[in-house]
Amino acid sequence: MIKSVSNKQDDILKAILELNGLESFDADLTYGNGMFYKNLPQPKFKFDIEPLGEDVIESCSTDVPAVDEAFQSVVFDPPFMTYVRSGRHGNGSMVMAKRFGGYWRYDELADHYNQTLAECHRILVKSGLLVFKCQDIVHNHKLQPTHINVVNWSQDLFRLKDLFILAANHRMAVPQQEGTAKKKQKHARIHHSYFLVLEKT
Fold first, then answer.
1. Where are the beta strands (DSSP E) in 8-139?
2. Angle at CA of residue 162, ends 156 and 167, nearest 5°
């Protein structure tokens, strides 16, 4: 029985492959170091804005070097944090920023996600699948329900076919600056992320 909640990323990706009759994903637009595929078949095409391997094609997810309707399935695992971005003022030196990258403002995140949705619609065949990993965040003291936003942003291009929740086994501690008063918690600590399975309409 395949369930929609797991604390293992591999199990969710395997479930998506099995439910959709796929042996592997055609393309990953944010391949990184390939940790997604440590226990899974490698995607046929690997893309990333900063390739870490010789077999990874340099490209941004908003401008993929592929013809229209090139792929049956695409994976997109973008940064999800705000107020962090390497090379910018602010928190660019944070461990999480160096490890995952991010955006300074939420509208930057929204622009990137929306442009990528349009590009994925272009490169996917009819009824092709986009596996979109995302996480809700608190930005500027306001909860941003990113998984709901992505579904809304994509509604003219995709339909939501499946939704999986990845529960975190552990989270990095929030650093407390020396000499500052402990801040009162105002939002629940987000301890999960989402895998949205979007089907091209």
1. 27-28, 45-48, 57-58, 71-76, 124-134, 137-139
2. 120
pLDDT in single tens digits along all 201 residues of the chain = 999 999 999 999 999 999 999 999 999 999 999 999 999 999 999 999 999 999 999 999 999 999 999 999 999 999 877 765 554 444 444 333 443 467 878 899 999 999 999 999 999 999 999 999 999 988 878 888 999 999 999 999 999 999 999 998 765 555 555 556 667 877 777 789 999 999 999
pTM of the model: 0.85
Q: Map out the domains of the chain as residue ranges.
A: 5-79+107-169+187-200
Statement: 5-79+107-169+187-200 belongs to CATH 3.30.70.240:
no
**Ramachandran assignment for 147, one of left (phi > 0), alpha (psi -120 to 50 degrees), beta (any other):** alpha
Helices first, then strands: H and E counts in the chain: 4, 10
